[in-house]
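Amino acid chain:
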Amino acid sequence: MPREADVVVIGGGPGGYVCAIRAAQLGLKTVLIERDQLGGICVAYGCIPSKALISMAKLYERAKEGASFGIVADGIRVDLAALQKWKAGVVSTLETGVAALCRGNKVQVIEGSAEVIDAKRVKVMTSSGTEEVVTKNLVIATGSRAIPLPGLEFDGRLVLSSTEALALEKVPESILVVGGGYIGLEICGVYQKLGSKVTVVELTEQLLPGTEPDLVRLPQRNLEKRGAKILLKSKVLSLEKGESGVKARVSTPNGEVVVEASVALVSVGRTPLTAEMNLAVIGVNTDAKGYIVTDARMKTSADGVYAIGDVRGQPLLAHKAMKEGAVAAEVIAGLPSAADWKTVPWAIFTDPEIAGVGLTEKAAVEAGLQVKRSRFSFGALGRALASGEAEGFVRIISDAKTGLVLGVQIVGPEASNLISEAALAIEMGATVEDLALTIHPHPTLPEAIMEAAEVAAGRPIHQMKGL
C-alpha cells in the first residue's frame, strides 16, 4: 500500500529539512525524501565544507605570519588529508544533527531518488526497491547543480566542480579557476594560502560580477599580492588534459595566452535541479532560466505544489531557502505566512570578507531616493588594529531626508558576522540615528557600524568629517 502524507518534501537541504520539521511541528504528517545526505549540498559539499577549509587556511596563514606579531612557529605545515578528515567530521556532526531533529519532530525520512508522477503521487527509488507516496501537498526543494562548460566538462580529476575541489587530499601545485564568482574565489583562496599558484579567468570586466567594484578591490589585491594571475575580460577557448595537468588557451584583451595548471576549477554558476519533477506534466510554470515561478507564499501554478530554495531562483542562498521552507510549511498548515522580509543579506568569504544587505547607492538612486553615503574605515578601529586585520570599511546608505537605513555594505574582518546587525536595522525600519545612539561594546568590530552611523549623523568622533 502507498504511504500517505499531508506533505511530501523532495530534497533534504536547508530549505527542505526546515520545511519538513516546521510542517511536522504544525501537526502535519510529513515525509522528507533525500537521495544523498541530509543537509543537502550546503552541509555536505558547499557552505560548511568550504567555510571549514577557509577557517583553517586562514589559521595556517596567520600562524606562518606570526613572527610579525611576536609569535614564532617553526616547521609549520599542512596535512591536507588530516584537514579533510576533520572537515568530514564537521559535516558528519551536522548531518547527524539534522537527522536527530527530523526524528525528534516525527518527520518520516526516506532515503532515495524521487520522481513526481503527478501533483499527488511521488515514486521513490530506494536501495531496497520502489515505493509510492500519496500526498495532499508537494514541496519541491531539490536545489541546484554546477553548470559545466562545453569542452570543460567535469571529470572529477583534472576538471573539477566545487564539490571535487573541496575534497582534494593533496594541495595542487597550481589551479586554473574558470569563473571569478564567489565560489571560485573562496575555493582558490583556500588553496592559495596552502601553497597553490592561482590563475583566474573571468569573462566580465571585474571579479565577483554584480558586486560593487570598491568592495572587490581588496580581495583582488590580496589574491594578487600572494601571486595570483587574474585575467579579466577573458575566455578559455580550449582545454587540453595531460598526465600532469591541464593546458588552456585563453583569449585576453592583450591577445591569446596559454595557461598550464595542475587542475582546473570550473565555477560559472548553477542551474536548478528539476529533471525528475515532471514540472510540465503537473502544470508547474518555470521562467526562462528554468527556475520555478511561485508567489510570496511559495505556491506554484499547480494546486497543492510549492517550491523553495535554489529551484525558486536567485539569490541561491541557504538562509533564504530556510525562511522559504518555513513559509511553505506554515501556508500549507493554514497560517497567514508569506515572504514578507524586506531584504536578504549575503556574504562572500574571500580575504577579507565581503557582505551586504539592502540597497546599494546605485539601486537607491535608481529607485528615485535621495541618499546619503557614510563610511568608516577599519583602520581607525581599535579592535581591528589589535587583531591585525585593519583592511576595509563599513558603508551605510541612508535616506537623506529621513535617515532611514536603506543598505549596508562591508568589506573587512568578520563582515559575514557583522552584516546581521545591519539586516535587523533594515527589517526594523531603523535610522542612522538609531544605530548611532546604540551603545556598542568596546573594543569590538561592530563598533564600525555605529561609527559609520555617527558619520551619517554628521558627528564622527574617530574619523575626520568628509572622509
